[in-house]
Design goal:
This protein is mainly alpha-helical and 212 residues long. It is 55% helix and 0% strand.
Amino acid sequence: MINFTRPLFGRPATSVMFGPMAPPQFPSITEPLFGAGPEGDPGYLASLRTGPVTMLRQLRITMLTLVTAPVLILAIVPFIVRGGKGVFGGLPVLVFAPLVVAFVVALAVGIRVPRALPVGLADGPAAQAGAMAFRQALFLRFALADAVVLLGLPLSIISHSEMPYAAGFVLGFPLLVLLALPTRGMVERMRRRLEAEGTQSHLWAVLLAPAG
């Protein structure tokens, strides 16, 4: 059953259920590990192999899995795209214009999220709000960057050329790595954005806390 009100820190909440299928859920956090900082992060790959199950570890596994999808699509594009003249005849330069626009939008929006936390939040609510904003921003960044890559697929199909997808991959895949992989540096940059108005986000306290 879908539970839309699952609490972040393991507190009970009223459930809204309708349907037999449930989306993937991250483990709830029993209690933020206040005082934790980037020095507690063992590193991206090390956190995947060892250590407790944390929200950061779950996010890293999820995003690493999602980021590999465009690579797999790149391998099968030659089998999807037919040769010959496309809808527009040859391969016009304008077919690449949507990719450039999508790239600019993804970069411009991606680097501006998340927004700063409101002033005056207590530690507990700030930690929960910060973690939620971080998670939402992470998936928004992924969606924006992934759209740059995937936009190349229909353009390749209608133009009968692999070049639009290849161009989308060249533009979008580095964005996926930059915007969507929660490395230590990326988490720190997002933490600073959350705390731009002076409210402590305690982001590391939630990301590194053992999951319940």
